[in-house]
Amino acid sequence: MSNSFDAACHTLVQNIGYNTLHATPTIDEKDNIKLFQVVVKTKSKLFWREPVFKPTEHQLRQLLVGEEDLNVHRDDKNPVVLNIESKSKRSVKGNFEAGNKVIVADTTAENTIHLNIAYGEVMKDKIKDTQELYDELSKRRINIDHAFVTQNLLGADNKRKSLCLITGVTYLPNGGTVHKVKDAGLEAKAKAEFQPVVAVGAGVGVASNLDLEMVLTHQTAMAYNLQELIINQKTGQIELVMKA
Fold first, then answer.
1. Residue pLDDT, tens place only, 122-149
2. DSSP alpha helices (H): ranges in 77-183?
3. Are 34 and 24 spatial neighbours (Cβ–Cβ below 8 Å)?
């Protein structure tokens, strides 16, 4: 069901913010999608290819000299973005289209897979003021001797890499569901029985329910916003914050 989760995240991004949001890459990485989390950006050697963004387990404060929390206010209003249900299709054709109908490559599929996705409420946790973030970071320094920084930022092998900061997280406060069906009979059955389900328990993540349904538990992070950090590799000073 991992591919179904990927499709659900990309469908949401296509619906609400294709140019500003990054879809949560995989189920395994969803727990790394948090405000002030560090993401590694790697540019492709081929100029026409999009860069790759890899969420990490590190909060930015862990990489700063002194490891103090950032003095940046969060937007506590958490406005509802939208409340939608989406029908998507996955096919061996490998095309990807914007809107409510999405076709995603699945080379192992023998036929078209239909997805019925219910997101319910979609909300956002984000920083309140970008200028406040810029002012705070201009006073802080990255610990150049930190093992993570050394491995991902310094040296000739890392010339195509840079560090980014998650400044907004789009999530499902009440969870949602993804139904996957492979033929008309199963699709009709799923539609007849389909009801949004919230998994029991306080855990954040994804739970499976039979073969046709994936339950997105409450607080599941579906997408995120980034700011790229330009770091002086000699002093560790954060010289500039720009959109990634």
1. 889 999 988 899 999 999 999 999 999 9
2. 130-138, 147-152
3. no
The 10s digit of each residue's pLDDT in 68-123 is: 899 999 987 676 766 666 655 543 333 333 333 333 333 344 445 567 788 878 88
Nearest of 115, 227, 93, 209 to residue 162 by alpha carbon = 227
**Residue 118 · residue 196 · CB < 8 Å:** yes
Please give the Cα distance from 144 to 137 (Å, whole number): 15
Residues 6+ apart with CB under 8 A from 17: 170, 223
The dihedrals phi and psi of 202, each to the nearest 5 degrees, come to -95, 0
- Predicted structure pTM score: 0.77
CA torsion 25-30-35-39 (nearest 10°) is -40
DSSP assignment, residue 113?
E
- Report the first-to-last Cα separation within the chain, whole angstroms: 29
Chain position carrying tokens 């930022």: 153
Burial class of residue 108, CB neighbours in 10 A (0-12, 13-18, 19+): exposed
Handedness of CA 212, 203, 18, 56 (dihedral sign): negative
| Residue type (1 letter), 130 | T
Query: In this structure, what token pair is assigned to residue 204?
Result: 């954040």
